[in-house]
Amino acid sequence: MEIPYTVEPRPDTGLYNAKLGIWLFLASEVMLFGALFSTYILLRTGNPNWVQHPMNVPMATLNTMILISSSVTVVLAWAGLRLKNYAQFRKYGILTLLLATGFMVVKGFEYSAEFSAGLFPWTDNYMAVYFTMTGLHGLHVLGGMVVIGYFLGPGAKMWESDPARFTNRIEVFGLYWHFVDLVWIFLFPSLYLL
Amino acid sequence: MSAHDSSEAIQEETRKYILVFAALAALTIITVAVSYLDLSIGLAVTLAMVVASVKGTLVAAYFMHLLDERKTIYAILALTMFFLVVLMILPAGAFGDHNGASTEVAREADGEHH
CB-based contact (8 Å) between A64 and chain B? Predict the structure, then answer.
């Protein structure tokens, strides 16, 4: 039996399955990161002796630019599929994967510099919050890399068999990826600049 | 194929994406520049969060195309935002305790009984 509404929208919600699914998932993600932000506010405002270690702002600024750029490459990849231009999808999809890799490499350099300076998750509350939040965010970037890697690799076969559904899959991936970008937009000033 | 999927509409969208990218990059530079100013913590937090919210809104409105979405998604997000606000307000409850305000009130109330 064929699953209904993988491409055409369901009449009552106006959405295809995956789009409703990803938004419900993102809603749960808002609560996950929201809880961590809330914890950070509680720990920081409640501690008059809060120690804020100076973080590598230029590296984090570079990473912000990388993530913003990757959000653009994702929408351009999706636009490529909607224009039936598979080459454009591939070009921007690969660029997205490269930018995500760049983000993880920069983060890796940051972490290793912090470890060398003797800063670990158990050092103090600030470092615990910093590693928990950036670590969870990094895992999301890694997850996104696996997904876009799949769509550029074995998952790309669907473009031949069901192009409309494949286009929707990239839209849904894009929504997830923009969310990961959005979380970083708030993490960056909260952890690095304030 | 809907009007949204016409080749012209997609090219127009692409132009917007580039403009949004430029705005996000500019706002990132502004956030970093402001952090180097010697501002009070209250003002610094307010400014940083206002700029981050503008950036977040741009990403959600254009990249996640929330400007033009179905009611179901708006309903899901309205509920999520409500609970997010509750989460953000929760620490304020504990803030009174840390200041000793709640304990002061409790002590005073206690004193009146004896």
Answer: yes
Pull the structure tokens for residue A103: 């983000």
Choose among B10, B31, B95: nearest Cβ to A193: B31
Distance from the Cα of A78 to chain B's closest Cα (Å) equals 10
Structure tokens at B56: 């977040």
Q: What is the pLDDT of residue A190?
A: 94
Range of the domain at A121: 17-193
Q: Does some domain include residue A141?
A: yes
Is A4 buried (19+), middle (13-18) or exposed (0-12) by CB count in 10 A? exposed
Nearest 5°: phi and psi at B2? -80, 170
Q: What is the CATH number of the domain that holds A81?
A: 1.20.120.80
Answer yes or no: do A194 and B79 touch at CB < 8 A: no
* pLDDT tens per residue across span B63-77: 999 998 999 999 999
Count of structural domains, chain A: 1
